[in-house]
Design goal:
141 residues, 2 helices, 0% strand, rod-shaped
Length: 141
């Protein structure tokens, strides 16, 4: 029984440490992802505001004077904005993919841990059942 208790304690400590490390990793990953998302959103908002301003300026220029220079500049600016947006989208996709991969890894790790814990619990339960059965048998005899 003494050996059993010692082994149990050891396993529990190991599992606890593992869980703690896992939790830390998850928290760090989440924080990083959140920061990235916030930055991307901010940049997108900026781009949107710029686009709106450009559109307004274009409209004004059109109403005032129908010149080619302003329109060309606006079109070029629009193209630049589109490129920027595309880049941003790509970045976001990359980050999302990375986070997804990390989360998947974490999930797998957690599943493994859960399986291990379940196995341990099952073993303990089996041992307890065996003990109970033995006791019952003794009582019957």
């Amino acid at each position: 029984m003494m050996t059993m208790t010692t082994t149990r304690r050891r396993t529990t400590t190991i599992t606890m440490t593992m869980m703690m490390t896992l939790m830390m990793m998850i928290t760090t990953m989440t924080t990083i992802t959140m920061l990235l998302v916030i930055v991307t959103i901010m940049l997108l908002l900026l781009l949107m505001t710029m686009l709106l301003l450009m559109m307004r300026w274009r409209r004004r220029s059109r109403t005032r004077t129908r010149t080619t220079t302003t329109t060309t500049t606006t079109t070029t600016m629009m193209m630049m904005m589109m490129m920027m947006m595309m880049m941003m989208m790509m970045m976001m996709m990359m980050t999302m993919m990375m986070t997804m991969m990390m989360t998947m890894m974490m999930m797998i790790m957690m599943m493994m841990m859960m399986m291990m814990m379940m196995m341990m619990m099952m073993m303990m339960m089996m041992m307890m059942m065996m003990m109970m059965m033995m006791m019952m048998m003794m009582m019957m005899i």
